[in-house]
Amino acid sequence: MMSEISQIDEWVRCLPNGKPISALGFGCSSAWAKPGFDNAEAQRLLEALVEEGVNHFDTSPSYGAGTGEVRLGQFLRTNKSSEMVVSTKVGTNLINGRIVRGFQRDLIEESFAASLERLGLRSVDILYLHGPSLEDLHPGSDVHSFFEDMKSAGKITYSGVNSFEPAVLDAVSDTAIDCVMLQFNVDDFRNVRQLERLSQIGKFVISGTVLSRAKFKLSTFLPRNSRSLWYLLRMIKTDPLFAWNGWKLKRRLMATGLDPVTAAIRFATGHPMVLSNLFGTSTIEHARANARSGHGVLDPAMREALAKGRMPARNDSLEVRAR
Question: pLDDT by residue (tens digit) across 203-239?
């Protein structure tokens, strides 16, 4: 059965139980979750996002060795946590101050209990397996009974898998797992077949990297300070040719008549099978700008051209509706 996205409007969608979720969500990770990042600034960034209509926040015990969860938990204690969609992960488990990979029952139980404590919550909306292997999803694996028990105890609403590996995503199809967080954006279509298949059988889908790490915005990577240097080094490691690839992607996005960030975000938020899309940033200015970009719709002809990796044809008669 096709999983159709239930929408209140173009920005607010619904989880299967009817709880609203924003078209964009914030990944409480990377520089924002580093212990050296100013905590007051981190809190102000979350406040700005909520002001812009974002209610979806994803984290993990491995982000800043628990700092991401602690900071998000601090924010949730002073805001209406029941109105937020919160997700975290097991598999990259924080045990006695160290990240321990594994999906054995005792490991993930201990790690998740500590995550709830750091978040200050009795339950989360989605709990993901963070980078599982095919073996970890085997029918006899501990993870399936663990998810069932966590649901019965009211500690999670939905079970999920966070993976960018096509074979792993294919394996989710044969399980009772509710949702996936995969890789999908205007520059990365590796999981398109899995996205369509999972949606067809009733799973809901979250995209983990809506902006493709903004490789098309080279000014982001100028090493002006330790924060921007960190982003530059990470991008070089991920994509040594990112400057060239980013320039080509920027040309495609600019052909829409929108600024590249807005075009990239609206490309993703307009996908009929993606419920919500995550982005990360460490500046309030970028957080607000990204959220506002999500309040609009990309012209269908332009979106189709971008989906096929082509330069959209400019047509002055085409209008981009914005909210």
Answer: 999 999 887 656 666 666 556 676 666 665 666 767 6
| Phi, psi of 299, rounded to the nearest 5 degrees | -55, 135
Task: Determine the Cα–Cα distance for residues 48 and 291; give it in Å rounded to an integer.
Answer: 10
Q: Minimal CA–CA distance to 312: which of 240, 269, 252?
A: 252
pLDDT tens sequence across 261-306? 999 999 999 999 999 999 999 999 999 999 999 998 898 889 889 9
Nearest to 246 by CA among 261, 233, 228, 225: 261
Range of the domain at 86: 6-214+267-298
Share of the chain above pLDDT 90, in %: 70
E strand spans, 202-281: 204-207, 276-279
Q: Which of 237, 212, 211, 230 shows the shortest CA–CA distance to 289? A: 211
User: CA 155 to CA 160: how far, in whole Å?
Assistant: 14
Report angle CA 58, 223, 186 to the nearest 5 degrees: 45
Q: Is residue 89 assigned to a domain?
A: yes
The tally of domains found in the chain comes to 1
Helices (H), 62-165: 67-77, 105-119, 142-152
pTM of the model: 0.88
- ∠ CA 8-55-162, rounded to 5°: 100
Residue-level pLDDT at 230: 61
Residues 6+ apart with CB under 8 A from 136: 91, 103, 129, 143
